[in-house]
Design goal:
5 strands; about 210 residues; about 55% helix; Rossmann fold; alpha/beta; 5-stranded parallel sheet; 8 helices
Length: about 210
């Protein structure tokens, strides 16, 4: 039987990706693989001056995510990944380009690199998309209290949500599970997390049952 290797969690900033990755990893004895937020040399500068640092930030994330994908496929473990390489290109870079923070020439260079990389990327066995409206995102962002996120504009989150929804509508490279997190709290309510686990079990069983 083919082994489950790669589960990825997608969603906007503050949707709960990292927390869910941690909880699923504990529940299933998977290995979590997180975004390199603390080690990222551009993130704090980016939130202070998006136009100056957007291209640098996106190249850093793209390279980091590509290395993660290679790490996942070479590992013998089942890995749950916090955010995917697709989101870097189809959501964040695209939004920064549309917003004028990445110039046309730089964006084309970015896309050229992404399209070269993506030929060597295997999609996750299961993609879990956390759908969250703006009030939920803001609540979650405030709760985690990262000072460099204080300057984030609501318009930025709205635009990202728009890109996420458009991407998810066309996602066809692998199995997809959409979880609406607006009215649930899988951290505080055991029954909410149990409901998510039940849905994940169904998807896994349909893949490898």
């Amino acid at each position: 039987m083919t082994k489950l290797k790669h589960i990825a969690i997608a969603g906007n900033i503050g949707s709960g990706k990292t927390t869910l990755a941690e909880k699923l990893a504990r529940h299933y004895s998977w290995t979590p693989l997180f975004e390199s937020v603390d080690e990222n040399p551009y993130l704090r500068d980016f939130y202070e001056d998006m136009t100056r640092w957007a291209f640098h930030l996106q190249i850093y994330f793209l390279n980091s995510r590509f290395n993660q994908v290679n790490q996942i496929r070479q590992s013998a473990k089942t890995i749950v990944q916090d955010r995917t390489i697709y989101e870097d290109a189809y959501i964040f870079a695209a939004n920064l380009h549309r917003s004028g923070h990445i110039a046309d020439r730089d964006y084309q260079s970015y896309l050229d690199i992404f399209h070269s990389m993506i030929q060597f990327v295997q999609p996750p066995d299961l993609l879990i998309y956390l759908r969250a409206d703006i009030p939920k995102l803001v609540q979650q962002i405030q709760k985690r209290n990262r000072d460099y996120e204080y300057t984030m504009r609501l318009e930025y989150l709205r635009n990202l949500n728009e890109y996420y929804e458009n991407w998810i509508k066309t996602y066809q490279v692998g199995k997809l599970l959409i979880i609406d997190v607006n009215k649930i709290d899988f951290v505080e309510r055991v029954e909410d997390f149990a409901s998510i686990v039940g849905r994940v079990d169904l998807e896994i069983n349909s893949l490898f049952g």
